[in-house]
Design brief:
By secondary structure, this protein is mainly alpha-helical. The chain has 18 helices and 4 strands.
């Protein structure tokens, strides 16, 4: 859930909402996602399937609708991978200026350089290789990166909160005038789903859980992840806003590490943050790569797309074709460079909203006679998810999709239609195929 947005996009968050708007946007956004998290916990316990959304909606929605919801949810994870592949060059350039040498071409006014492009492609190959070896190595890799990040985060966030000054906070909201506070919160709230995406990915790894694993643990993990992600983003916004005047940070387009370096007059603090950011970047890349490839496999084994997506590697059981496809898509999109960063967050927010809405709706359809608590959470979750989709899809809402974002969404939908048309004409589930 926690990638490098908190380093490279802090100026965007504060520019949207100011410290008050950014803090409350992430706080309210995280709280609003709790009903969705609870619904996912119940669904994963009942249906531990790598296909997740496709498994939950199977038999509830018509196959085309079920496939469309699941394919859109894959986008929510898949779109993060090129984001991180691009961001690694952005991060390394903050330490090694030579990363900005050897310009190749420009996209939307952003120059792509050979070292940055090479770093993104190399990281893509590393993550794909780790996943081909199998889920166990990927899990160990993920744990080491996550706990390393948390340790470093604790150090520099505590320093920022202790050494910061409330004099740096005013004005609390970026938008002036009547209704400015609400608009500031709304503009941040729109991107929160993208940065909080991941708590529900527990379901994508559920088939590969160890034998005898207590299924109630899936729900506990989902709720813990949602809570931890909310806390992380609120604390980092508060720490940055306290240590450095946020309007100056926005005007100069500074990253989190630059704000800390100037506030503490120490490059060592900035380097500590960048080390944490690199750990965070690789962690989020690997986590979303796992989720997207397992979900593609889950769709493939149901015969809803070309049978190749159901192929697994001998010995490891890793979804080999899905891993290859995701690596190829990530590598190709990496060539777009930094121009990809902000628009991707908008597309990802709509995509994940569709997946969350489908899951909550499937729960309600499967549990028409169940207890009020479960249905209440699912109803609330469905309302939140529908609002997330509406905020991005309705043109009169501030911050809704631009033409470029609709084009990106349409291209992914076209790719899904292509795979759908290549599906076996029998709709029954296919056995796994080894390669």
């Amino acid at each position: 859930m926690v990638g490098v947005g908190w380093v490279v996009l802090m100026d965007d968050w504060l520019g949207r909402g100011g410290p008050g708007g950014a803090f409350l946007g992430f706080l309210f956004g995280g709280m609003l996602l709790w009903p969705i998290a609870r619904t996912y916990g119940r669904m994963v316990a009942e249906i531990p399937d790598a296909g997740a959304e496709i498994a939950y909606t199977e038999g509830v929605f018509a196959p085309p609708a079920s496939f469309a919801a699941a394919w859109t949810m894959v986008l929510a994870y898949a779109i993060v991978c090129p984001w991180e592949a691009v961001a690694i060059g952005n991060l390394l350039a903050r330490v090694f200026p030579a990363m900005n040498a050897a310009p190749l071409y420009a996209v939307a006014g952003k120059t792509i350089t050979a070292p940055r492009l090479f770093a993104g492609l190399l990281l893509t190959g590393l993550v794909a290789g780790v996943n081909l070896v199998g889920i166990r190595l990927s899990g160990l890799f993920q744990n080491a990166l996550t706990f390393g990040l948390l340790a470093l985060f604790g150090v520099f966030t505590a320093a920022g909160l202790l050494r910061g000054s409330t004099a740096n906070l005013p004005p609390l909201f970026a938008r002036p005038g009547a209704g400015g506070a609400l608009l500031s919160i709304l503009l941040v709230l729109q991107v929160v789903p993208y940065f909080m995406t991941g708590f529900e990915s527990v379901g994508k790894g559920s088939e590969e859980a160890r034998p005898g694993f207590d299924r109630r643990g899936f729900g506990r993990a989902i709720l813990a992840a949602a809570s931890a992600g909310t806390t992380f983003y609120c604390l980092i916004v508060a720490a940055v806003a306290l240590v450095f005047p946020w309007r100056e940070l926005v005007a100069q387009k500074l990253g989190t590490e630059a704000a800390f370096a100037r506030a503490f007059s120490s490059r060592d603090v900035a380097n500590l943050i960048l080390v944490a950011a690199v750990l965070s970047l690789v962690k989020i890349f690997n986590g979303n790569f796992v989720a997207s490839t397992r979900m593609l496999y889950g769709i493939g084994k149901r015969g809803l797309v070309h049978a190749a997506l159901a192929r697994t590697a001998r010995g490891t059981g890793a979804p080999a074709f899905a891993i290859g496809l995701m690596a190829a898509l990530t590598a190709a999109t990496t060539f777009l460079g930094d121009a990809l960063l902000v628009p991707v967050t908008e597309v990802g927010s709509l995509a994940v909203g569709v997946g969350w809405l489908a899951t909550c709706a499937a729960f309600l359809a499967r549990h028409r006679g169940s207890g009020a608590a479960g249905r209440g959470a699912a109803l609330a979750g469905a309302a939140v998810a529908a609002a997330i989709v509406a905020m991005k899809a309705l043109p009169f809402v501030p911050g809704s999709f631009s033409g470029a974002e609709w084009i990106a969404f349409a291209l992914w939908s076209a790719l899904g239609f292509f795979f759908w048309m290549l599906r076996p004409r029998e709709t029954s589930s296919r056995p796994e195929v080894s390669c």
